Amino acid sequence: MIRACALSSLVTLLFCCPEAFAEQLVTPDMIVGDTIAAPLSNTASSVEVGKTVFVDRDQGHCVLCHQIDGLDAEFQGNVGPDLSTVGDRLSAAQIRFRIVDLQSLIPDTVMPSYYRLHDLNQVQEEFQDQTILSAEQIEHLVAYLTSRTQD
Amino acid sequence: MRLLAACFLFVGAACSPETTQLEPDFTIEASQRVSGSNFLTPETVAQQNDDFENPGYLWVERGADLFEQGEPSCAGCHENGLEGVATHYPAFDTGTQTLINLEGRINLCRTRHQGLTSLPYESDELLSLTAFVAEQSRGLPISVEVTPQTQSAFESGANYFMTRRGQLNLACTQCHDDNWGKQLRGDTISQGHGNGFPAYRFEWEDFGSLHRRLHDCDTGVRAAPMELGSQTYIDLEFYLAVRASGLELESPGIRR
């Protein structure tokens, strides 16, 4: 298994480097600093749906690591920062970047990259070539988190 | 990355020719290392410590029966019991020149000395025998050291622990070294020690090996898991045992 994985990454390295961008859902030109300004999807985003993505075990399940005041979800985690008023601290473009691929800026972060397919290792077969969240789910999340302000 | 640095430190230590015992550097200092039972409720700890309430003792009792069976039986040779033995596993087997864990030692005894076949990994019989042997070291400190013979296995285990994998792209170290004690919803992240295994897990409603737990960690980050009993998991078990050395062996433990 390991050998197979090593071989496949080698193959990836040898043959895919020139076209590495083809594999990347978000190309470097879409990222400016710590922002991705353009929405990943054209469908209308919804704060309410975003809240569901944030809580649902089968979707983002962000409450595993993060907390938001007043959210109907018991035992919220504290591995990541409190996001109760994240909309005051970060713009939509900054929030989008952090969900998509924070590891591209902070390689050691424990925050998973929810919209990325490149440079992954030993992925279980049923999850191969799939992002953790869809573009639509991420846009709903961005809408919800942007709405989280003090007022 | 911190882990990589630790690996290099370790390699550095291994380079001095007169060194026979290698003291690796771990992210969590020895004085900070605590058993997974520290993150359980007091009720669960009480259940673990009560031989009548701890479901793991069902497997220990089955193991005691199996220990008497065979020609010769295990007890035929090990008439004085095996107190303390489990604290030194995984260990290097000179016959096969490989690192083996307690399950592997039991199977080698069967094929070498008892004219029996190996028991399948995670079979009830192998779990029971392993639990019976491990229980005789309950309360004793885990004592596993890296030697020149086991250095490459240690490095392989360390590498597995430090490498990001799966769709979630997480390494063991990121939770169990860097974020232990924090909350993942209702669960407190442990330091990832194996000193309670084989253990009864509420999530399984069953008794299982450390390798079954490692398998669950891998699938938890959506990584393709290794085979139970694979050398990769034995090497990881070895790395974890060196890292857990000094902690009391708690098998049969109870874990979430």
Summarize the structure.
The complex is a heterodimer of chains A (151) and B (256). Chain A has 151 residues and is mainly α. In chain A, 36% of the residues lie in helices and 3% in strands.
Termini gap of chain B: 29 Å
The whole-angstrom Rg of chain A is 17 Å
Biggest sheet of chain B, open or closed, and with what strands and sense? 3 strands, mixed
Task: Give the uncertain stretches of chain B in residue-range form.
Answer: 1-21
Looking at the structure, the CATH topology of chain B is Cytochrome Bc1 Complex, Chain D, domain 2
CATH class of chain B: Mainly Alpha
Strand order of the largest sheet of chain A: 1-2
Strand % of chain A is under 5%
Helix content of chain B: 25-40%
Helicity of chain A, as a percent range: 25-40%
Oligomer: heterodimer
Largest beta sheet of chain A, briefly? 2 strands, antiparallel
In CATH, the homologous superfamily of chain B goes by the name: Cytochrome c-like domain
Which consecutive residue ranges of chain A, at least 5 long each, have pLDDT under 50? Answer: 10-22
Rg from alpha-carbon coordinates of chain B: 18 Å
Net shape of chain A: globular
What number is the mean pLDDT of chain B?
Answer: 92
Q: Report mean pLDDT of chain A, rounded to a whole number.
A: 89
Report the structural category of chain A.
mainly alpha
Would you spell out the secondary-structure blueprint of this structure?
The complex is a heterodimer of chains A (151) and B (256).
Chain A: H1 2-16, H2 20-23, E1 31-32, E2 35-36, H3 47-55, H4 86-89, H5 92-101, H6 135-146
Antiparallel strand pairs in A: 1-2
Helix pairs in contact in A: 3-6, 5-6
Chain B: H1 2-14, H2 42-49, H3 56-67, H4 74-77, E1 91-93, E2 98-100, H5 102-113, H6 124-135, H7 151-162, H8 172-176, E3 183-184, E4 187-188, E5 199-201, E6 206-208, H9 210-220, H10 231-243, E7 253-255
Parallel strand pairs in B: 5-7
Antiparallel strand pairs in B: 1-2, 3-4, 5-6
